[in-house]
Write a structure and sequence with these properties.
Elements lengths: L1 H12 L19 H5 L28 H5 L15 H12 L6 H11 L9 E4 L4 H7 L3 H13 L8 E3 L11 H8 L3 E3 L13 E4 L7 H12 L4
Helix pairs in contact: 5-7
Length: about 230
């Protein structure tokens, strides 16, 4: 009863605000109708490797887009919650560069719905790491926040430092896929004291905030597979 009263009092003083625009909403970490309409959740037909939407509305198991057929990524299955544009892009940028760490919890909830059928026995959740100089400047790794919240929502084990970034890379925003690949090669390594976590082909759920060309995830995936991950 006391906790409920405190919660009610807090909502009276600090009413829940929309994550997208700040307007008052019914519950914490929610979106108002306008921002919800501007957030493109991925539904219907999509590529089972990169999660890109495909023509048609019917879900087709194991459908693969032309890009993944021509240049298959090293991972087995890929999912995403929303398309990286309009309101979703603003939320990601707020989490990534705007100190809006509160976005990680609801975003992880959307991700949990998207990957609810993926977890297998003994699967480990692992985030893409930041180089220590960027982590020092930003003070947090947005992918680690997402991975931790996702693992907790799905009751899965996680390791936030299984991978480490051994070389700082420049911004990839305006680079071609080939240039991104060249820049990222050799930029990740396994944390030696965590190497036992991937022994025996253990399945890994690798988490990042954004998938564009897939170059970052490809390189991280290569390191994990070289270390024996499944």
């Amino acid at each position: 009863m006391l906790n409920a009263q405190i919660q009610t009092a807090l909502h009276f003083v600090y009413p829940p605000r929309c994550l997208g625009c700040g307007s008052i909403v019914d519950s914490d970490f929610g979106l108002c109708p306008t921002c919800w309409a501007q957030t493109e959740f991925i539904r219907g037909a999509k590529c089972s490797v990169c999660a890109a939407p495909l023509p048609g509305s019917a879900v087709v198991n194991d459908a693969i887009c032309d890009g993944c057929l021509q240049d298959p990524p090293p991972w087995k299955l890929g999912v995403a919650a929303v398309l990286y544009r309009e309101k979703a892009r603003g939320l990601v940028m707020g989490l990534k560069h705007g100190d809006r760490t509160e976005i990680a919890v609801p975003a992880a909830g959307w991700m949990a719905l998207a990957c609810k059928d993926i977890p297998t026995r003994n699967m480990l959740v692992v985030p893409i790491p930041l180089h220590w100089t960027r982590l020092l400047k930003r003070r947090y790794n947005q992918s680690a926040l997402l991975a931790k919240a996702l693992a907790e929502k799905m009751d899965m084990p996680y390791s936030l430092d299984l991978l480490k970034r051994v070389r700082r890379t420049p911004s990839l925003d305006k680079m071609s896929p080939d240039a991104r690949h060249n820049v990222l090669t050799g930029s990740f390594d396994l944390t030696k004291k965590r190497a036992h976590l991937v022994a025996g082909g253990r399945p890994i759920l690798l988490v990042d905030d954004v998938l564009t060309t897939g170059a970052t995830l490809r390189e991280a995936c290569r390191v994990l597979k070289d270390a024996g991950a499944g």
